[in-house]
UniProtKB/TrEMBL annotation:
UniProt-listed Pfam families: GerE (PF00196)
Residue stretches making up the HTH luxR-type domain: 122-187
Protein name in UniProt: DNA-binding CsgD family transcriptional regulator
SMART domains documented for this protein: HTH_LUXR
Length: 188
């Protein structure tokens, strides 16, 4: 039988938490679902960028799943992850009162927003990207690796790399992280 662990108070008022997020989900280090509010369950049932598979949270990307697990087990302060489709995850590891992360659980807050203007589409149009280049940009922006982007697009890894090199040239960037920042901060 598990005993309850005293958890320190969050550094923000609880009413702000309810107003700032659409869904609250508690997961463990294996991304197993522990608990979710009604909005969290509804988000997981949408079956888009965040879903429940065999009792575990799945983002659709192995790399993003690994980043979530790492945030829980690293003992850090957590982090945020943009899943696209208007969903941004903020992960906060739970800690016992003594400061130790003995529970290996975290609160996953999902903010769902309606995206009025899609930044990837705006960048694609402004920089003159082809349809294929735009698709590669969209997948990279969502956090997929070039290998995953190739699998999703149904093309060879070398094709994705070629498209990505042309995207770098057209956006005056040279790394994927720089490209993602470029799109995230795009002001037209």
């Amino acid at each position: 039988m598990q005993t309850a662990t005293h958890v320190e108070r969050p550094p923000f008022p609880v009413q702000d938490l309810a107003e700032a997020t659409t869904a609250l989900i508690v997961i463990d280090e294996t991304l197993r679902l522990i608990s979710a509010d009604p909005a969290g369950h509804a988000l997981l049932m949408r079956d888009n960028c965040l879903r429940l598979s065999l009792g575990h949270i799945c983002t659709g990307s192995h790399n993003r799943n690994m980043r979530l697990k790492e945030c829980i087990t690293s003992g850090g302060t957590g982090g945020s992850l943009d899943l696209g489709d208007g969903v941004v995850l903020t992960l906060t590891p739970l800690r016992a009162a003594d400061g130790m992360n003995t529970t290996r659980q975290a609160i996953l807050m999902a903010r769902v927003t309606e995206v009025e203007e899609d930044a990837v589409s705006l960048v694609s149009e402004s920089c003159g990207l082809t349809k294929a280049e735009s698709e590669v940009l969209r997948l990279i922006y969502k956090g997929f690796s070039t290998v995953e982007a190739a699998r999703i697009s149904g093309v060879a890894k070398s094709t994705v790399r070629s498209h990505l090199q042309r995207v770098f040239a057209k956006t005056d960037t040279s790394r994927q992280s720089e490209l993602v920042h470029f799109v995230a901060t795009w002001r037209g």
